[in-house]
Amino acid sequence: MRLIQNIMIIDDDPVNNIIARHTIRHFDSNIVIDDYSDPERALKFLEDQSKNRVQKLPDIIFLDLNMPLVDGWTFLEAYKNLLPFFNKDIEMYLLTSSCSQKDMQRAKTFPVISNYIYKPLNINTLEKIRKEFSA
Which CATH class is domain 6-128? Predict the structure, then answer.
């Protein structure tokens, strides 16, 4: 049985990061949360971890799609290249306000994406994720 111990949030909106952080803390106060308002910094962290023998990787990543400079799609393209170097599987969830059918269809082209979730993150969604994660 896998436990959720570490979650990474990548979203340029600091308010969403606060809401997500608060929701996760309310859900399980033992989960370590790292949030990034700059997707390039998150990607740099993951790149650095991919080179380490002892990696400190999240169990779950919540990724926003609509961000300036480096959007979620660009992040995912770079992330795919790091996967072979990670020592564990990371569940990736798109956490977005986009209800575009085009975005939903495009998300299906990325096997690394576990699910497409609408903002804001809530306890019910986290419960479903925990059940899937530990199954």
Answer: alpha beta
